[in-house]
Amino acid sequence: MTKIIDLDVKEKVYKSKKATMSVLNDFKLEVNSGETIAVVGKSGAGKTSLLNILGLLDRNYRGSYQLFGSKTNEYGLDKLAEWRNQKIGFVLQESALIASLTIEDNIRLPLMYAGPEKNAMAAELDGIAGKIGIKHILNKKPLECSGGEKARAVFARAVILQPPLILCDEPTASLDGENKENILSLLSRMNEEYNTTVITVTHDMEVADRHQRKIRLQREM
User: Fold this and answer.
1) What does pTM read for this prediction?
2) Options 3.40.50.410, 1.20.1050.10, 3.40.50.300, 3.40.50.970; CATH of 34-62+77-216
3) Which of 13, 45, 157, 190 could bridge across to 41 with cysteines, CB 3.0–4.6 Å?
4) pLDDT by residue (tens digit) across 140-171?
5) How far apart, in Å, do the first and last CA atoms of the chain sit?
């Protein structure tokens, strides 16, 4: 197995006028290619902070992070942006769809920045949309869609490039049982067919149990 994540966080600190909070103290994580990992724990334990660090969205912490064998603290902003688009798929709760674009155009956004060698992946859109039940909303704008439909569109956007790493923050929280199963099945299929590594933050133990291993974060006292 190839190790793709080697993270060593000494401390992540949040400061406000009223208090200072520290999470992920002396936290270490190693992940091999093709693993599926669920991150669980109470609110405030640092689950979303961990995803932001893993996804190269947050470098404001003490520690080191090697991703795909490279030291991420040596990368400039352009390189980080390139990796976030081409190597990491984000299914984050705060991932906003662009209101002026159709759902289809929102899903296609990563293809615009991926280069001509990735254009063939545009053919995947219909298949993904069909599997997660959003073909009927592809021509709609986000404001015309329900919360669950938008959540599935964000998921489709995250996987359209078949990235080697997918990071999910409560990906099924707003979905009914059928669509929850569709999302989990597609993640499982990507893991099996493309050796995709999946890391999911969830409060749903049924979702957590569908992953190969669980990591429980404890809230700092």
Assistant:
1) 0.89
2) 3.40.50.300
3) 45
4) 999 999 888 888 899 888 888 889 999 999 88
5) 36
